[in-house]
Design goal:
Strands 1, 5, 6, 7, 10, 11, 12, 13 and 14 form a nine-stranded mixed sheet that branches. The protein has three domains: 10-308, no CATH class; 318-430, no CATH class; 439-496, Arc Repressor Mutant, subunit A, CATH 1.10.10. It is elongated and about 90 Å long. It has 15 helices and 16 strands. A hairpin with a 2-residue loop joins strand 6 and strand 7. It is of the alpha+beta class. Helix content is 38%, strand content 18%. The structure holds zinc ion. Zinc ion (ZN) is lined by residues 40, 43, 45, 57-58, 60-61, 169.
Length: 497
């Protein structure tokens, strides 16, 4: 659901910035995606997020001597799905390599990854930018294992860090693009399009706040209109799309200023420092040789037979375009609704669950496109974590359809349910919001309103139909939104017209 609005003109307002128009950023991404397999890539430990530290580990993912990895077939299939959807070449044979480095959250002292023969090579992803469709080329898609996590105590005086290896061995794919993007808008479109595709492929839940989807940026600048690439830096520690955009803005400015002042950009890895709103140098960029890659002798090569490849392709989940067409045919939705609802897989799934609970597709679509999407965006929350569940939304629309609550009350109930997570039917019951359809009771409010608004009555009697609605409004106000508007209208017509 992460769709950010980004104003490309903001960054040109800084008067201290050199002539920005002369330089443009050149941007590529390395995207790490944790796959949503039930178990890890080389052992049968679960991949559940948020368990107590070091409770999902075994000798294999702890890197004990003498153990042997066994490849998770599902992880390979998820990587294949992704590579296919990104139009990659899928070689018939690929293998795993050891990437050697020392890090406390990687007890083996090497990461099992793919360097020489990746599961997918080449390919592309088309993105929609303000300037039209743009094709971003892929370099490769490869499969690897995640490392553990270091936990740094909040106490600034603490002189230790803790290691949690629950994440070690979680299957990851890394999607490496070519540097084909040249603005923050391009980068945003790429991130959103890729996230959306991964969700549709059902290979990851893409929860950025849980580190399931992680963006690393490589960025250089060059004089606009020229072809030659400048020296790039890589930036890590970008934990949201917003941060990526801030980082692009900052790095474009930093590198441009360096060049304008006659300096040069160093090839290095930098870290985003959220507090400073700036990047800082982390280490000079390592080259592939530093890792001493070599084929992992414990794992046989992966043989992607044409039959296997075809089977994976045949079982790809329903993608956006197919779902959009089905929404039009199955639910009778207008093209416009179907397009908005299928722009994000989690939103589409939420909608379908609501329709299953109360089959009024168009009314539910209206609620989704206005109230639900507005709240999701404002709260920056994924549909799965939204306090109002699909059944709750269905209940609200059902209560309207059954005449139990008015549309206006429904909006209030919605707001309360979103705020508190309470069940809408329970809110209506507990707060006595059930619509009053008893004509005798409604008539009392109508009579009061007539008695209190003689000028309106006069206008209505003189044939001013617009005033009828104003008087209906007065009655609704008296009933605190509970009077059935149809009955109110009928009573006013009977009494005054
Ligand atoms: Zn394990």
């Amino acid at each position: 659901m992460t769709v950010l609005n980004y104003n490309c003109h903001e960054r040109t307002k800084d008067p201290s910035m050199p002539a920005m128009s002369k330089y443009e950023p050149v941007i590529g991404f390395e995207v790490h995606v944790e796959l949503c397999t039930a178990t890890k890539i080389f052992c049968s430990c679960p991949t559940t997020f948020g368990s107590p530290p070091n409770t999902q580990v075994c000798p294999v993912c702890l890197g004990m001597p003498g153990v042997l990895p066994v490849l998770n077939r599902r992880a390979v299939e998820f990587a294949l799905r992704t590579a296919m959807a990104l139009n990659c070449n899928i070689p018939e044979r690929c293998n795993f390599d050891r990437k050697n480095y020392y890090y406390p959250d990687l007890p083996k002292n090497y990461q099992i990854s793919q360097n020489y023969a990746c599961i997918g090579t080449g390919g592309w992803l088309d993105i929609e930018t303000p300037a039209g469709t743009k094709r971003v080329r892929m370099n490769n898609v490869h499969l690897e294992e995640d490392a553990g996590k270091l936990i740094h105590p909040e106490d600034p005086g603490a002189d230790y860090s803790l290691v949690d290896l629950n994440r070690a061995g979680t299957p990851l794919i890394e999607i490496v693009s070519e540097p084909d993007m040249s603005s923050a808008e391009d980068a945003l479109a790429y991130m959103n399009t890729l996230k959306n595709l991964l969700e549709y492929l059902e290979v990851s839940d893409c929860k950025m706040q849980e580190g399931r989807l992680r963006f690393e940026l490589n960025i250089s600048v060059r004089e606009a209109g020229t072809e030659r690439l400048g020296t790039k830096v890589e930036v890590k520690n970008l934990n949201s799309m917003k941060t990526v955009l801030k980082c692009i803005e900052h790095e474009t400015w930093r590198q441009t200023r360096l060049l304008e002042e006659g300096g040069r950009v160093m090839q290095e890895t930098r870290l985003w420092d959220e507090a400073a709103g700036a990047t800082r140098a982390m280490r000079s960029k390592e080259v592939a040789n530093d890792y001493r890659y070599f084929p992992d002798p414990d794992l046989v090569e992966i043989h992607v037979t044409p039959e296997w490849r075809d089977a994976v392709r045949a079982h790809l989940p329903e993608l956006q375009e197919a779902k959009r067409r089905r929404f039009i045919e199955e639910y009778g939705l207008p093209e416009y609704d179907a397009r908005i609802l299928t722009n994000s897989k989690p939103v589409a799934s939420y909608y379908e669950a609501a329709v299953a609970a109360h089959p009024n597709p168009k009314a539910l679509s209206n609620w989704m496109m206005t109230e639900v999407l507005r709240e999701l965006n404002a709260r920056e929350v994924e549909p799965a974590d939204f306090a109002l569940k699909p059944a709750g939304l269905a209940a609200i629309v059902r209560m309207i359809d059954e005449g139990r609550i008015s549309g206006k009350i429904a909006k209030d109930v919605f707001a309360k349910a979103v705020e508190s997570g309470r069940d809408p039917a329970e809110i209506v019951q507990a707060e006595g919001l059930v619509q009053v359809t008893d004509a005798g009771e409604v008539e009392k409010w109508v009579d009061e309103a007539i008695a209190e608004n003689p000028d309106m009555v006069e206008k209505i009697r003189a044939g001013n139909t617009k005033t009828v609605q104003a008087l209906v409004g007065q009655v609704m106000k008296k009933s605190r939104g509970k009077a059935n508007p149809k009955i109110v209208n009928e009573l006013i017509a009977a009494k005054l017209c």
